[in-house]
Amino acid sequence: MKKVLLSCVILILAFTAKAEFINIGVFYSYDIQSFHFQVRAGKYTLYSEQGKVKELDNSIPIRVDYEEGKVKIYEKGKFLGAFDKINFVGVGWYNHFMIQSISPKGLERRYDDNLKIFSQRKKMLLVNNIDLDNYVAGVVEAEVGRKPKKEYFKLQAIICRTYALSNIHKHLMEGINLCDEVHCQAYHGKSFFAPIVEAALQTRGAVIVDSDIQLITAAFHSNCGGQTVNSEDVWTKPLYYLRSVKDTFCLDKRNSVWEKRIDAHRWENYLQAKLPSKHVDSIEREFEQINRKVFFAAEDSGLSFEDLRHQFLLRSTYFGVEHRGNEVLLKGRGYGHGVGLCQEGAMEMAERGYNYAEILHYYYKGVHIIDLSALDFFKED
Ligand SMILES: [Zn+2]
Ligand SMILES: [Zn+2]
């Protein structure tokens, strides 16, 4: 039954999901004690747990201070009240606001939609309650900047939307869905770059699912160095759509190759500590890695390239080794864990005219792009 329904669903070409809102903890790594809220577009109404406080226009900033576990608000120096929580709710057709921090000083960001503020763990938590696609546009800009082709922005929008929804409970205990750090997805506020905003809207509601209609783990990395990695080689869990693929699109990019020199004693000491004794003297100390390998030097060495990557803070696991006097020279390819979509390869594919669906299916094998509303439907099934 599911299969029949799925084939109907994937025929839907226009993504028509209704607006979904999501709660993002913003300025998450900061301890904001005091800031100004300024309306930049539209209209806002300020509510507290006691009800409506006032209507706001864009002429007067509202000062918000956190003192003794209470959120205190002021307008032009006049005290408006102390509350447990307040909500700035956009009530116009198109609403966005700016936050300018007073303590710590000098942070300034702009956001779409609504702002909720409440006290938690002796901190004031700032939460951007935002339309999913507005959030996706902000994330795409924070993650990849403005340089790529628009088709690439569409692809990245679908990936970031899928990631957000499959991690929607990541900060549940704190009363938010996601934070704005790389721990979840980097998000520095509203995108003002039209191709990115359009890409988010033109793919509205589009998410990637596997053959069981579950949101996929939409892994991506900067550059695979010419070959992506099977998921289980990094994270132990095999996922059928995260298979190693050869990639020639990323070979001549910023993050295609790297070199690192390491003190030979440090390197050898680590190998001696980690390799089984039967291997310590017998394995090759110098080698190239033509195709990606999981284990250092020999299949049964027990020492993975992933371990070495973490120990020596390497850009990738895709490297060979040469000895140069007191140093070892690691010659590597790619940047990142290597699983899933290779961003620099995908950007090159977009440059060459591939559409977002073609690029997506190149890196994620046997997945489907469906509308979020269909996903909700399947969830109820
Ligand atoms: Zn997070
Ligand atoms: Zn690549």
Query: Which overall shape is indicated by the principal axes computed on the Cα atoms?
Result: elongated
- Beta-strand residue percentage: 25-35%
List the domain count as a whole number: 3
Mean pLDDT: 91
End-to-end Cα distance, whole Å, is 10 Å
Contiguous helical run count:
11
CA radius of gyration is 25 Å
Spatial strand order of the main sheet: 4-3-8-11-12-1-13
- Ligand names: zinc ion
Main sheet properties: 7 strands, mixed
Structural class by helix and strand composition: alpha+beta
Structure, explained:
The radius of gyration is 25 Å and the shape is elongated. It has helices at 2-9, 132-144, 150-166, 194-202, 232-235, 264-274, 277-280, 305-311, 343-351, 356-363, 372-380; strands at residues 21-26, 34-41, 44-48, 51-56, 62-67, 70-75, 78-83, 85-90, 96-103, 108-112, 114-120, 123-131, 178-179, 206-209, 220-221, 257-263, 319-324, 327-333, 341-342, 368-371. With 381 residues, it is an alpha+beta fold. The protein has a seven-stranded mixed sheet with strand order 4-3-8-11-12-1-13. The protein has a six-stranded antiparallel sheet with strand order 7-6-5-2-9-10, with no helix packed on it. It has three domains: 23-130, no CATH class; 134-216 and 353-380, no CATH class; 257-333, no CATH class. The protein has eleven helices and 20 strands. Mean pLDDT is 91; it is low at 1-17. One zinc ion (ZN) is lined by residues 170-171, 178-179, 181, 183-184.
